[in-house]
Amino acid sequence: MRIIPLSMVLFACCLLLAGPAMAQEDAQKFPAPLPKLELSDGDSIVFLGDSITHQCLYTQYVEDYFYTRFPQMRLKLHNAGVGGARAWDALARFDEDVAAYKPKYVTILLGMNDGSYRPYDETVFQTYRQDMTELIGRLQSIDAMPIPMTPTMFDARAARMGNRQRDPEAVALYNSVLAYYGTWLRDVAQQQGFGFVDMWSPLNNITIEQRKTDPDFTLIRDAVHPGPDGQVVMATAIVNDLGLQRQLSNIRITRGADGEPAVRASGGEVSDLEFTDEGVSFTWSAKGLPWVLPEDAREGAKLTRLGHRLSREALEVHGLPAGRYTLTIDDAEVGRWSADALARHIELQENEKTPQYQQALTVAGLNKQRNEGPVRSLRGEWSQFQRYARTKRSVKENPGNEQLETQLMALEERIAGMDERVEGFNRQAKEFEDQIFEVNQPQPRRYVLRRVE
């Protein structure tokens, strides 16, 4: 029998004892992806992207969410999208259009243009990879958390139904190219502990589900730019994937055998609770408002079940005698329900008759004006700058080209005074924000459930 030296036995024991510790040490080298946004008053969020961000739609809807869900926090929300942008273009305007806003978080929606609308090309992807890697590094250098988001869907069926002439091979394969780009971004986010939002999957999933009954259905009529309904899908993806609060409030009122009322509530506080022979009444002081979107986005809210899933405002009352009850909020009737329905619970977030819904609708209207006015004008300035930056690069790459030099001089004239104009549009946007924060503060509401014949 072979005798094993004592020294080898001791060495093996040391390895066994050290193994779990070494494994734990190795695991600690890989950070966990960002579980959720940690927000405080004054935090800044920048939405960096291309024309899909420049549309000022999904960003507007997410802003509506923040304005109504966290009215006690004055967040700084900045759209940094420019039509046609690639990752290189975001680098060219990084200091003034991103870093200047001192962001805590920066969502990045780039890739649709970077893929060049062609079948997969390794050289094209490596350019995107290099520029995105540099962009992420720049964000880290200013202590901002990068939140890469997958490029959105390229709708091949919409492209085939359209009148525009496109390369059939590109039409057939480009959505897959974008899926590849998004998968790479997901791996980067996971390995480095960033936030991450999957835009591609929900757009594709809803599209294929709807086409089971409507083969011509599309959220993206031009194959590239989602309309308002598609942009609602994108906004809900941000809320879901970044761990933001989903339920708005829940009120559960019971009446015990002894007749004494009891309440359990989240998202606010119940006071002045009283049961009578006719019903029940109380005052509700909510912490937020329902997430209400402009009229042109309502179908997207239905497709995503936005209200129930991300803005649930529930009321549940037990102990009412059988019968039907009318609910008034601040003396305005909002609906009638049976005692059984009230015991199961009703949801009010999409009830247009409630004062809180109308209050949130006013917020959405003001924010729509903000985005269609000064925010779009601001993005127009950066669109001019993008043309200037690209032409300047071309002049550098093609010295002596008089045509390019002439174009550059013309663009220099166009961007002259841009800093002042940008400052003016930011000031106008803030004026709308000031109005929003005057009307988005929740008010105590008097609820009265009264039995009716």
TrEMBL record:
What are the coiled-coil residue ranges? 401-435
Signal peptide (residue range): 1-23
The domain of life is: Bacteria
On whether Protease is a keyword of this UniProt record, the answer is no
Q: Does the keyword ATP-binding apply?
A: no
Tell me a Gene Ontology molecular-function term this record carries: phosphatidylcholine lysophospholipase activity
Q: Enumerate the InterPro entries for this protein.
A: Ester_Hydrolysis_Enzymes, SGNH_hydro, SGNH_hydro_sf
A Pfam entry, by short name: Lipase_GDSL_2
Q: Which residues form the SGNH hydrolase-type esterase domain?
A: 47-231
Q: Which UniProt keywords apply?
A: Coiled coil, Hydrolase, Signal
This chain belongs to which protein, by name? GDSL-like Lipase/Acylhydrolase
- Provide the species name: Maioricimonas rarisocia
Q: What is the lineage of its organism?
A: Bacteria, Pseudomonadati, Planctomycetota, Planctomycetia, Planctomycetales
